[in-house]
Structure formats: structure tokens, C-alpha cells
Amino acid sequence: MSQANRDVTVVVPFRDVQNHFGAFLESVAAQTALARARVILVDNGSTDQSVAIASEFADRHANVDLVAQPEGRAGDARNLGMDMATTPYIVFWDADDIVPERSLEVLRNTIVKTRATVVVGREKHVPKPVKAPWHKYFGKNVKTLSSVVDIPDLIHSASCWNKIFDLDLLRSQGIRFGTGTAFEDAYVSQPALLLSERIALVDAPVYEYRRRGDGTSVMDTIWDLPQNYADQLVMLEYLAAMRQTLTPYQQETLERFLIRSMQGFLLRAPHVFGEADCRQLFERCRALYWGITSEQFARSTHDTRHRLPYLALHLGDFDLFYRPASVLGPVYGREGDLYVDYPGTSWGLPLTKVTSVPARIEGVSAGDGGTAVIHGRFSVNGIPDELLAQLELQVWFERSGTTLPAVNHGHSHDRPDQAGAVFSVTVDPRQFPAGSFPVRLVVCTRGRDVSRPCAVSPALAHNPPVNGFHGLARITAEGGNAHLVVESGQH
């Protein structure tokens, strides 16, 4: 096919990917629509054999060009490729992934037939699958939207490699990749989604993102590198500057992305930075998120522990952000729900509602006088582990008419990866009627007491005590929850 008939440009930045580059390039060579494409390989300063691999590939394919952009990062290389493009459509792939053979064909045909300016396809993460919030909107047929506000969750699709773009949209709106920074994709994907007046979703696997086994993938170190925090914040500040040019619905959609994509960084920042650097981050984020409603923060975050930093930002409470255990009190019960007990305002109630109280039974041991001691572990989402010892606990054996006081042993970690606090309750099975009784942990508060079901640890479920409670009772897992099963009636 002549160059004049090529209508898609594929831009591939690469740097020191010799161990993965060959497999990626073979997946490019296998594309059923490769003849319609111009492929631009952009060396981003490789010091290994990547350039030799790319050069050999370009020699074998007349529609492949190899160029160099030794300065900057992947965003600079992508911008160079975009500037060289002369086709109406453009895609951006990474050199250490795999592209299914019909990807280019599917993306190209969809954007032509739907006249969309952005097409989003389904991506696959290897070796560990990832379920993204927008995946549930894919269907068997191509779905066309007049705006991203029709499916606001789609704004979280920040990567560019599962998309094809109308090049005129990018150029007319001045949309370019971030330069000299990480997370450069969001500088293109988010503005393109927000400003596009026709978006298509195609339920076909168009990309396979491979997480490297050597720990060097971006996602392996995203929370560990201080520079990532700086790059993420700069990117969000850049996008936030768009708000004044957007409609109210577009603004609300953008706010979802601004909040959700920073929540992990805000949660971990106090463990990564010293107080001075954390305070600087805190003040910049206060300006970034000013004016957003508490309902929007609650809707755009995972759980209570991710919401409290945004409460701190809104109220200007740096201690709540940096050392939450110094300002938080015990939880408060209200209408069957628990709330973090923080002396704030009613504005923050949606952010202080506790989303989960994980509790599970982990063991059983013999007590005095024929009793048994049930051991468990619990946590309260949003409450630092060191505050859990302040909570008064009971254990309710539902349907038995029995609620017993529990001993809260507080924060105790036998392993580095363990979280939460330990509790125990002494049970005399001879005081119970025969039957099966769901086990619920009761958190006693100055408001209402609130109970939550207990699960059973896998170890206890697979290896229950041989004699149960002296042959009278045992702990079982039924429907995912712990039950006290008493074999005979009261004695």
C-alpha cells in the first residue's frame, strides 16, 4: 500500500527495553492492518541493544521509521512522533507490552465508522488482571457517546495505549504529552476525553499491558518514589486549569479524576515525606481541591481512610493529615453506621462514615472451668491501628440471646503485613441452647452500639480444633461468616 493510503500513525517510544522489545515488535508486525499504518519508533536515549533491535525491524518494513529523541522522557518522544504524523488518526503504544493482532484494525475501523474523535478499547493487564471502573460499560456492540459525561467513570482511563485519536482533535486543542515527567499519558487522554464530542467504546481486547517481573514497571514503584508525588501533583494542577473552560457537567467529571488519582498519594505521603515537605504538598492540594463538595469527595474515593485526607484539606487541619492519631477520637454510632469521631462540621459527615469494620475469628483455645476462648482480629477503616485499643467491644451470638464482653488487646502485629487489633471472648458453650449462631463483633460507642459480622480465618476454617469446645460446640464458616455451632442443649 502506498504512503498516501496510510491513515494511521503508530508512535512507539522506547528506552532500554531489549528484553521485551522483540516480542512487542513481532506483535506489531502481526497487525492485520499494518499496511494502513506508518510506525514511528522513537529512541528515548537507549544504552542497551534496543536501537539495534529497532533498526533491524525498520529495515524489514518500509512503513517503519526510526528516529531519536535522546532528551527528556517518554512524553517528549511521543510529542516528536505526533509532530511527524501526517495521517488523520494516531495511536500510542509502549515498547514493552503486547498488542493483539487485530488491535489496529479494530481501532481504525471503529473510528472511521463512528466518526468519533476518541475510541477506547478494552485492555488486559498481565500477569495480574485489573478491573477498572469503566470496564463495566463495555458491551457486545460498539457504544457511542456524545460526551464523557455520559459515562463519567470513563475519565479514569488515563492511559493512551488503549485508544485511537483523531489527530485533528489533538492539534486543534493544543493537546500534547507532558514533558520531562511521569504520568505523561494523562496530559493527552483526559483533555481528549473531556473535549471530544463523540467517543466510541469497542469491546475488543486492543492492548496487553505487561507488568514486568523484575519490579521495574511504573506501577511497582508508584508509591515509593518521591518524584512520582511531585509529577502527579503537577499533572493534576495542569488539568485543573481546564476547569474554567468546561461546562458544569464536564467540571464534575474532571473533579472525579482529580480526586481519585491522588487519593493513594495523599494516604501515603506522611510515610514518605518529612513534615516540611508534607506541609508543602498539603498547601498545594488545598488550593487544588478548594470548592469541591464533600459528596463529590465521598463519591470519588474508595473508603474512609482515603477520604480523611480530603477532609483535612478542606478544613486546613494539617495534624489530621500528617498525624491523624493525635486528633481523632473513638468512633461514634448513628443509625446502624459508624463515623470517625472528629470535631469537625456537618460538611464532613460523608467523609467520616466508616465504610468497613473487618473482623474475623482466628483461633480457639481452652479456657478455665470448661470454657473456651475465641480469639479474633479487627480493624476500623479510617482509624489508625494505635487508636483501636480505645474501643469497647462485645461479641453477640445472634439468635442465642447472648452477648458477652470482649477483651480488646489493642494493636498487636505478629507479622509486618498484619493490621488491626486483637480481641478475645470467653465462652461457656454449656450456657447456650443447641443451634448455629452467627458471630458478630459489637463496637460500643457513646452513640449507638453497632455490630458487624465476623468472618473465619482460612487457617481456622481448614483446621478447626479437633474437639471443638470440649465436644460441645465448634466455630464454622457459613455463607462467609463465622457461626458458633452448639451440638447439644444447655447442661
From TrEMBL:
Name of the protein in its database record: Glycosyltransferase
Record-annotated Glycosyltransferase 2-like domain positions: 9-136
EC class (word): transferase
Keyword set, alphabetical order: Glycosyltransferase, Transferase
Superkingdom of the source species: Bacteria
InterPro entries (alphabetical): Glyco_trans_2-like, Nucleotide-diphossugar_trans
Organism: Streptomyces violaceorubidus
Entries under Pfam families matching the protein: Glycos_transf_2
Any GO molecular function: glycosyltransferase activity
EC number: 2.4.-.-
SUPFAM superfamilies: Nucleotide-diphospho-sugar transferases (SSF53448)
Entry-linked PANTHER family: GLYCOSYLTRANSFERASE, UDP-GLCNAC:BETAGAL BETA-1,3-N-ACETYLGLUCOSAMINYLTRANSFERASE-LIKE PROTEIN 1
